[in-house]
Amino acid sequence: MGIQLEPSVRLPSHCKGASLVESASFTRVAGRKETPLSFITRMSTLLFLAGFSLYVSPASQLQATQPSQGQSPKSQAESEEKKPAPIKVPDSYRIGIGDQLQVSVWHEHDLSLQVAVRPDGNITMPLLNDIYVVGQTPKELAALITEKLKPFVNEPQVTISVSSIQSRKVYLIGQVTRQGVFSLNERKTALELITEAGGLGPFAKSNSIYVLRVVDGKETRIPFHYKKVVDGREADVELLPGDKVVVP
């Protein structure tokens, strides 16, 4: 005799408010009516499986949308502006107005910053407010800031580097293609300055050029014979900050 199966459990379209009796019919197995106990057991199993499938599906979608642990987001350094590379300056270099400084405090990100020396000779730092820096070397300034930070930071380690030199300037005046103020970030001579400015003008007196320099508080003239320097018959004049090259 074959086994006749009538329609099994029918899950409701929604679970709320639906009773087990209304949502399913008894099943006849081998001509016998299914007992209520076995029916409830089978219903519990089906409901558990249905709930498990609903739980697993969102979890799988969430896992699919998340990046793998081996993939990291873009580094914050890419979104931040690139810091200027420090300039190599001699230990004797004195900080001046307009210079750009990089103040780095070890393990203190909020205290590490790029600052410009203001016309009053000060820079501003968190916790310390204004600090007068003009005339100090980078090492002297680092020592000063270290001492000022000790009440706030445990064993501070401070490094000062020069990012841009704006205080070292020379001036070109007279019969040249482009007069003006020029930065003296590196070694530069009078001939190099004139060349940088586009050369002499058509009415320039090349043998009457001179450099005005303040020595011991007094302004002195240093002659510069353009043609002799170009021909190699006379040494070029190395410029110092504040020099004025005058081309009559």
Question: Largest sheet, order of strands side by side?
Answer: 9-8-12-10-11
Number of separate structural domains: 3
End-to-end span in angstroms?
A: 128 Å
The count of strands amounts to 12
Biggest beta sheet attributes: 5 strands, mixed
- Identify the quaternary structure here: single chain
Mean residue pLDDT: 78
Q: Helix/strand-derived class? A: alpha+beta
Q: How many distinct helices? A: 6
Percentage of β-strand residues:
15-25%
Helical content stands at 25-40%
Per the principal axes of the C-alpha atoms, what is the gross shape? Answer: elongated
Cα Rg: 41 Å
CATH topology of the largest domain: wza like fold
Which CATH architecture of the largest domain would you pick?
2-Layer Sandwich
- Can you write the helix and strand succession as a string? HEEHHEEEEHEEEHEEHE
| Unreliable segments of 5+ consecutive residues | 1-9, 11-31, 55-73, 75-80
CATH homologous superfamily of the largest domain? wza like domain
CATH class of the largest domain: Alpha Beta
Task: Write out key terms for the chains shown.
single chain, 248 residues, alpha+beta, wza like fold, Outer membrane lipoprotein wza fold like, 3 domains, five-stranded mixed sheet, three-stranded antiparallel sheet, 25% helix, elongated
